[in-house]
Amino acid sequence: MNPYVRFIGQRFILFLETIFISMTVVFFVPRLVPGDPMGAIFTNMASVGGSMNAQAMVAEYRVRFGLDQPLWAQYVSYWRELARGNLGISISAFPAEVTGMLMSALPWTVGLLLVTTLISWTLGSVIGAVIGWRGRKAGAMRLLVPIALVLYTTPYYILALILVFVFAYLWPIFPLSGAYSVGARPGFNVDFILDVLHHAVLPALSILLVSLGWWFLSMRSLIISLKGEDYILNAEAMGIKEQRILWGYAYRNALLPQTTGLAISLGHIVGGALITEVIFAYPGIGYRIYNAIKSLDYPLIQGGVLLIIISVALANFLIDSAYPLIDPRIRYEGSGGS
Amino acid sequence: MAVAPVQDVVLDSRKGILWDLARNPKFVFGGSVFMALLLTALIASLFIDPALRRSGSFEPRLPPGQGTLMGTTSLGQSVAIQLTEAIPNSVLVGLIAAAVGTVLGALIGFVSGYFGGKVDALLRMLIDVFLSVPSLLFLILIAALVRNVNVISMALIIGAFAWPSPARQVRAQVLSLKERGFVQVARLSGMNGMEIIFLELMPHMFQWLGANFVNAFIAAVLAESGLSILGLGPQREMTLGMMIYWALSYSAIFQNLWWWWLAPVISLMALFLSLYLVHIGFDEVSNPRLRAEG
Asked: What pLDDT score was predicted for residue A181?
């Protein structure tokens, strides 16, 4: 079989395993936690929906998720509803569908994360490569190393708090919260886009700076460890220009572990970014989950969690699928497994 | 330089680990900052009248210096007194969660790596899956269901999802160790699987598990503050995350109560940075090649 197809196939199986196992965990968690939380959820539903026929709501829920049936039947219907894209009904905004509520939030989260991750990964890799290559000759630029270390150890939301204080309170050049001005009409026009960008600067910056620190440090140490390799020494002995050795030889070889690093840390990035949304009241999935927690809306919390799990698994699969483009060995020799 | 007898070198490296750590500047500096934070909080809390912890014990919204060391909250609590409770509690969450996660992870990694075959295939799949999914999500689900979490239950929940990364690394270590001569000899001399794991393999992993423990510690403190900011922390106890949560819910930033939110933020950053230095120190000692890079 074509090694590329086999490689992608393996990654696709891991993707399916991830979805299957994590969805199963999500199904069993509320049923394993002691103290009948499912009962509490229904009590909560009944009390919240007091004015709007709570009985009907709870009945609807029981039928849809078959909660009177044995566990295995519930499990089957859980998958059936998931396959239909039905994540249940919100408690706080009954009878709104959770799927719809989350779909309107998803673009904000994905947009914020995609842009910041791409920028920080690219920028961090390039700067890290330059500083790692120059080593002790990098001069004042070496100061970036301790700065990156401090940034990297700071959680996104801590940096977010500091940025809000400095740039939205002390020196208010950016808005405090939200994704666009109150009263702005969402649409595809210059004013609205500029407004969105203006609101996105601080949340983006808090994610960008922290992850930039990490990509910088990891690329720097990769390049440092590659510098002593025989093929680099050989290239130097052959008189190849330094810039070409750095970008054509060292950087290209460091790119694969750097990409693997991206796939591995994607989960952390997403987790941290969800909390950053809370600080900025940025209307993505993280902020939805935060509001759902405040209003004890478990179906919405669970839906948000499921959606993020699926997105992260999908993103990981896509990153993995890009390996063969970076590393020709996978195309020619077949995969090395995980 | 004279060639040292082999025996001496071995003995030297035996007394080594602690000795090397004590001479590693990053470990010493990080460790001192960490201990200073924790001990200051613990010792101070011994001298504080518990009645002063209640809200309304002080005049609300006082800036630092006017009567209290670090100012007061909107509810009339002293920020300094809250810190003496919050720092040890956050550290406790980190310690318990890291211990649970490391032990679980080591166990899973050992079993997976040592027994191989179908057990390994299954466990490796679980490790891969739980590594790729942000554990914060599972934590959110559980914490949202368990009403009234306290510091201990929160630590246990976090620890229950902290095993994948130690498991993966222990597994890799075991795979390389188990082909070594001394394990073969042990197997030939009739030791069973568990005996080999605990008597032959474990001792080789302690040093390595130490660095991993610090890593898990950092991740657990991070998870605690994240969950608390989301509103899933221990509502009746003070942790650094809960301090930020309360400050945010009373919009401390926009009321210019900077002392309220800045105190836990700076403490958290100091905690992370000091633990990270300890981690690097550990790495350098157990992996001497790193030291050369500077």
From this structure: 79
Contacts of A157 in chain B (CB under 8 A): 225-226, 229
In this predicted model, what pLDDT tens digit does every residue of A126-154 receive, in sequence order? Answer: 999 999 888 777 777 778 888 998 888 88
Question: How would residue B225 be classed by pLDDT, with cut points 50, 70 and 90?
Answer: very high
The list of chain A residues with pLDDT below 70 reads 1, 35-40, 42, 44-58, 60-68, 94, 328-338
Instruction: Tell me whether A178 touches chain B (CB under 8 Å).
Output: no
Does B160 reach chain A within 8 Å, measured CB to CB?
A: no
Quick count: other Cβ atoms within 10 Å of Cβ A244?
Answer: 10
3-state SS class at B209? helix
**Within an 8 Å CB–CB cutoff, is residue A274 touching chain B?**
yes
A89 bridge partner residues: A97
ipTM of this complex prediction, to 2 decimal places: 0.83
pTM, entire model: 0.84
Question: CA nearest A8: which of A333, A318, A328, A326?
Answer: A318
Contact A254, A222 (CB under 8 A): yes
User: Choosing among A19, A158, A290, A307, which should be mutated to test the B contact, i.e. which has the most B CBs within 10 A?
Assistant: A158
Please report, for residues A79, A287, A293, B2, B143, the alpha-carbon distance to residue A41 in angstroms, rounded to integers and kept in the order given: 20, 21, 12, 75, 14
Does B115 contact A at CB distance below 8 Å? no
First CA to last CA across chain A, in angstroms? 19
Give the helix/strand (H/E) hosting B125: helix B117-132
pLDDT at B218: 92
Please report where in the chains the tokens 């939030």 appear, as a residue.
A105
Q: In whole angstroms, give the CA distance from residue B143 to residue A292.
A: 13
Question: What contacts A278, CB < 8 A, 6 or more positions away?
Answer: A157, A286, A287, A290, B229, B230, B248
What does each C-alpha distance from A227 to A146, A213, A246, A334, B145 come to in angstroms? 21, 21, 9, 27, 52
CA dist B118 and B113 (Å) reads 11
